[in-house]
Amino acid sequence: MKITVVALGKIGLPLAVQFADSGHEVIGADVNPSVVDLVNQGLEPFPGEHQLAEKLSAAVRDGRLRATTQTASAVAQSEAVVVVVPLFVDESGVPEFGWMDSAAEDIGRGLQPGTLVSFETTLPVGTTRNRWKPMLEKVSGLREGSDFHLVFSPERVLTGRVFADLRKYPKLVGGLTPAGAERATEFYNAVLQFDERPDLDRPNGVWDLGSAEAAEMAKLAETTYRDVNIALANQFARFAAENGIDVFQVIAASNSQPYSHIHRPGIAVGGHCIPIYPRLYLWGDPEATVVSTARSANAGMPSYVVDLASKLNSGLEGVKVAVLGASYRGGVKETAFSGVFPTVEALRQAGAEVVVEDPLYSDDELVAMGFKPYHVGEAVDVVVVQADHREYANLSAASFPGVRTVVDGRRVLDPAAFDSVRFGSVGVG
């Protein structure tokens, strides 16, 4: 097949490489010329995705993958189009469709009869049918269901392990018509390979959920569940700390039977997914008070950790505080909705002099984010762990000359290595 993947980000580019690796001819379309240039050289535009560098290089070298900024032209040459353009929400929780609208118009201009269009970007329920269908029909002059097929098939992978996740998890699809769903099932069976999953009630592979709305809701449900679960863990953590209890022992004990799956508490919930998708769900279901309460609880965790540091240190006014970790999670060079931003802001409001360290970012990159860089080994009064980078696991009080207080927001440090300082951790009393 000839396939176009629209948007070569941290999900789109691995998808394009996966399709090419499965033997198909792939065009990657992106509005960023520098990304397109790097891809055409066989070079990954971002680090950290396992196997991407070698697979990308091979696909470009063998002529199975190329990139362009001309989306409509690429679509016009393709039998299938997969869309992975980012969608965000504003401060009020309203989806910002600007980038996706622009991409959909480009797709419509190039859309040919017989083409399959699959949106993988996480969407509010009803968006595929009520927004993308009329837009594509209007721009292309074609009719969905007869001239072309439109489906929703959510990406369900985690950056850093995309290729493994593509094999591990069922590929969900939902069409606007049975014929569209059948076409999407055939497509994904041709471009993906699946691991055996004896733990599932049905064989791993492409699962048709019966409608685009069901597939849209499935993605929102699985990610919103995580946000609500983490919020519950954070509530347990705060109560446990107030009562001299180690919440991690409690969680391990609770999860020792099969009906409990409590997640880990922590200083923040970041990334492109969990902070955003519950708000996409709430946009369609504003009465979901459990979801809105959980989102608020998680958003309040950075301030909670800063308050904990202030109490342990008897105030933060004029105190030099090192925040460890700009990334939203360990091992991933990504700051989308990272807890570093509200943590630094809360520390500054408390009067602290804030510096930031991250092994994945250069000093210049930290400065560009508005942070003053810090290097382990420099004198500092207080340390707050924001990301669970593996490089932090072996740190000790000796790593921070003059340190008086340490608050581990991710339970990555060894408390025994900090017996000479005041040490706090989320969920440990």
TrEMBL record:
GO terms for molecular function: NAD binding; oxidoreductase activity, acting on the CH-CH group of donors, NAD or NADP as acceptor; oxidoreductase activity, acting on the CH-OH group of donors, NAD or NADP as acceptor. SUPFAM superfamilies: 6-phosphogluconate dehydrogenase C-terminal domain-like (SSF48179), NAD(P)-binding Rossmann-fold domains (SSF51735), UDP-glucose/GDP-mannose dehydrogenase C-terminal domain (SSF52413). The keyword NAD applies. The keyword Oxidoreductase applies. It holds the Pfam family UDPG_MGDP_dh. Keywords: NAD, Oxidoreductase. This is Nucleotide sugar dehydrogenase. It comes from Intrasporangium chromatireducens Q5-1.
